[in-house]
Structure formats: structure tokens, C-alpha cells
Design brief:
This protein is mainly alpha-helical and about 170 residues long. It has 8 helices and 2 strands, in the order H-H-H-H-H-H-E-E-H-H. The chain has a two-stranded antiparallel sheet. The longest helix has 25 residues. The radius of gyration is 16 Å and the shape is globular. The termini are far apart.
């Protein structure tokens, strides 16, 4: 089993590296690049589904910090596989309850899944677009409590967060 887990950690880390390298194509104007990105994330989403079947959620305790973060990233980008995203969210929620996963990462995955379901997000982590040079979040369930909710899971206030993406 230990060998399996080491191989799994290596596989997850390699998948995340490929994801990061290819993510520049996600919003490309070139349809071939967009398609390559969609195929990659779909392949990764399918594989994450198999991993969850076999191992449950890959926690840092099981596969190490880097590979656990890789699993989260893969779930985060499985936008066209809501079933995989929902399962990852449920498993990660259980891991967070047991103190085995990051509440901050869970918050991002929850928002991403809600937005993909066409619902309002909780933490304002998903950006809908840019208005007057400033990033605008997808609609939130409780916009007036957004920063308070973000603070509870260790996410900086929205204004600080979007300053990183400043269009100025």
C-alpha cells in the first residue's frame, strides 16, 4: 500500500504540473488550445474519480501536502464534470471536518461547484468578469457577509484578493 500511495502522490503532482502548464490555454482565442485544455481537465477529472473510488480523498496525511493540493486543483478544474466536482466537495468536506484538509481550499471548491451549478457562491472566490477595470465576483448568497465568511476560512478580504489581479 505504501508503494501505491507514493505512486499516487507522484501521479497527482504530475497531473497538477500538466494542468498548470496547460491552464494558459483555458481562455485562449485558439479553439485547438481550448480543446486541448478541456481534454486534459476531463482526463484528469476522470482519473480523480477513480482515485476517490479507490482511496477516498487524497489528504496531506496520505499523499503529502503537494499531492493533496494537486488533488484539490484537479477537482477545482473539473468544471465539465460536476459529478466529480460534487464528490470531491463532499469528500473534502469530510476531510476538513476531521482536520485533514484545508478549509480555504474547500471554500474555493465550494464556490466553484456552486457557480458551475448556476447558483450563487458563498465566499466570492469566483470572478465573473471585469467592470471599470475592477474584477467582479459571481453573485454571492450573502454579499454583505462575504469578507466575514472569507476570514472564517483563511481567505483574505475580497479587495485584497482582487488587487492581485488588478487591471491597472
Amino acid at each position: 500500500m505504501a508503494h501505491d500511495v507514493a505512486a499516487l502522490a507522484e501521479e497527482l503532482t504530475a497531473m497538477a504540473a500538466a494542468d498548470q502548464q496547460s491552464s494558459v490555454h483555458a481562455n485562449s482565442d485558439d479553439p485547438a488550445e481550448q480543446l486541448a485544455w478541456r481534454r486534459l481537465t476531463a482526463r484528469h477529472g476522470d482519473r480523480l474519480g477513480e482515485i476517490m473510488d479507490e482511496y477516498g480523498w487524497p489528504t496531506a496525511e496520505m499523499v503529502g501536502e503537494e499531492a493533496a493540493r494537486a488533488a484539490w486543483l484537479i477537482a477545482q478544474h473539473a468544471d465539465r464534470q460536476l459529478d466529480v466536482q460534487r464528490r470531491a466537495l463532499k469528500m473534502m468536506q469530510e476531510a476538513v471536518s476531521a482536520d485533514l484538509a484545508s478549509p480555504r481550499e474547500l471554500a474555493f471548491l465550494r464556490d466553484r461547484t456552486l457557480v458551475n451549478e448556476g447558483r450563487n457562491q458563498v465566499y466570492g472566490t469566483q470572478i465573473a468578469g471585469v467592470k471599470d477595470g475592477a474584477p467582479v465576483p459571481w453573485p454571492c448568497q450573502e454579499p454583505e457577509r462575504m469578507d466575514e465568511l472569507r476570514a472564517e476560512v483563511g481567505i483574505e478580504p475580497f479587495d485584497e484578493y482582487v488587487a492581485k489581479f488588478s487591471m491597472a
